[in-house]
Structure formats: structure tokens, C-alpha cells
């Protein structure tokens, strides 16, 4: 089966399972989405959603967040992974939003990536989910599943992103990004996965041992970089 044919079939399965996928991080505007995505690196969405209500109650805007001390922010997000670095980055990026962008989250990929703690994936999430600008954020789940399904060779995150963008139209990227994440969590975990009962891997999976080992190494590299 050609990649393009496989991609259409996978999309049909995902549309059936997740017709209206919601952004899993609690937020109310581009700023709170940006902070939530920064917090989500090497931390589950569920954990982020436990700490952000109080964080955003105290500091719902860049001005309010910049007004908190680093220690105050750390106290509110302490249970998230890499909390000290995230507290520093969140305070500084809030200051920079005030200094460079009039207190607004910029609708620009390069400007977002210039903020502390904001990498390409985080910027892509904000661009597509907050502003509707086409992007295809590739997280650990998407990188792993794209290789597992034979949609990309899994050598780099950049290669996976380019391959997926080539397979689906831009107006489908936002939905597919969320659908694949949900599918990876519910049906297609990294460990203990039985491809024979998976709604997609049962017919689309790449089953060679060498491919599985390459996927595991690539996923480990992605996890280390997030």
C-alpha cells in the first residue's frame, strides 16, 4: 500500500474514533496555552492541568506572570518535571512578551521560538491551536506512531514533520495532530503494545525488529530533547 493510501485510511480510522478532539491542556487564550505547553514538556497533560488553574488564577496575563517572583511560580508548578527551569523560563518569557510584543503572544513562529523554553514543537502548537495557522507539531507519540505506521522513517523529528505535512492537507493538520496523540495514548503505547489488536497497527504497522529498534532509539532522542 502506498503511503498516501495508507494515510487516507489512517485518517478515516482516526476520524471515526476521535471526530472532535479537544486540546488536552486547560487554557483560555494564547498566553495560557503557551504557558501550559511549556509546562507539558516531560510532564503529563493531566499533571499540567492540576497546577495551571491556580497558576492562571494568580497570573492570567503576561503582566501578572512577570509580576510573580521565580520562587512563587516554582511553588505553583513544583510537581511538574523540570520545574525550576520552567519557572525561570515562564517568568522571563512573560517579561519578553511585555518588552517585545506589547503583552501579546506573537502570531509568528520565529518570534515564538525566540522566547525562553519555547522550541519548535511548542511554537507549532500555539500557532495552530491559538491562531489557526497551519502547523504539524510532532511530539513523542506522533514521532513514534509515524514510524510505526511506515509514514516516515523516524530518523529525525524534522523528517517526520515534513513527511506528515506532505501526506495530509494543511487544513487537516490541527485535527490530526490531536487525533494521533489521543490514539497513541489509548491504543498504541510505546511498551506492551499488541499490534494484532490495534485498530491501525494490525494492518499498517511496520513489523521488522530493526524498524522497532530504530523507532525506540528515535523516540528516546525526542523525549530527551523536549
From TrEMBL:
SMART domains in the record: ENDO3c
HAMAP family hit by this protein: Nth
Required cofactor names: [4Fe-4S] cluster
One of the protein's GO biological processes: base-excision repair, AP site formation
Cofactor detail note: Binds 1 [4Fe-4S] cluster.
Sequence similarity: Belongs to the Nth/MutY family.
Enzyme Commission designation: 4.2.99.18
Molecular functions (GO terms): 4 iron, 4 sulfur cluster binding; class I DNA-(apurinic or apyrimidinic site) endonuclease activity; DNA binding; DNA N-glycosylase activity; metal ion binding
Domain HhH-GPD intervals: 39-186
Entries under PANTHER family matching the protein: A/G-SPECIFIC ADENINE GLYCOSYLASE/ENDONUCLEASE III, ENDONUCLEASE III
NCBIfam families in alphabetical order: nth (TIGR01083)
Organism: Nannocystis pusilla
Name under which the protein is recorded: Endonuclease III
Amino acid at each position: 500500500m502506498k503511503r498516501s493510501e495508507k494515510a487516507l485510511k489512517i485518517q478515516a480510522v482516526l476520524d471515526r474514533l476521535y471526530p472532535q478532539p479537544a486540546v488536552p491542556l486547560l487554557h483560555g487564550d494564547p498566553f495560557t496555552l503557551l504557558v501550559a505547553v511549556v509546562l507539558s514538556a516531560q510532564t503529563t497533560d493531566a499533571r499540567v492541568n492540576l497546577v495551571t488553574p491556580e497558576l492562571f488564577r494568580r497570573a492570567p496575563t503576561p503582566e501578572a506572570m512577570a509580576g510573580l517572583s521565580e520562587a512563587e511560580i516554582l511553588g505553583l508548578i513544583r510537581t511538574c518535571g523540570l520545574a525550576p527551569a520552567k519557572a525561570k523560563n515562564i517568568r522571563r518569557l512573560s517579561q519578553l512578551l511585555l518588552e517585545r510584543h506589547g503583552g501579546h503572544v506573537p502570531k509568528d513562529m520565529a518570534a515564538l521560538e525566540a522566547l525562553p523554553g519555547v522550541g519548535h514543537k511548542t511554537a507549532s502548537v500555539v500557532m495552530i491551536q491559538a491562531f489557526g495557522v497551519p502547523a504539524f507539531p510532532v511530539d513523542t507519540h506522533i514521532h513514534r506512531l509515524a514510524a510505526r505506521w511506515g509514514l516516515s522513517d523516524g530518523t529525525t523529528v524534522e523528517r517526520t514533520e515534513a513527511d506528515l505535512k506532505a501526506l495530509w492537507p494543511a487544513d487537516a493538520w490541527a485535527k490530526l495532530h490531536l487525533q494521533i496523540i489521543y490514539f497513541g495514548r489509548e491504543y498504541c503505547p510505546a511498551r506492551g503494545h499488541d499490534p494484532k489488536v490495534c485498530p491501525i497497527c494490525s494492518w499498517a504497522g511496520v513489523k521488522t525488529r530493526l524498524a522497532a529498534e530504530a523507532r525506540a532509539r528515535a523516540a528516546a532522542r525526542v523525549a530527551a530533547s523536549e
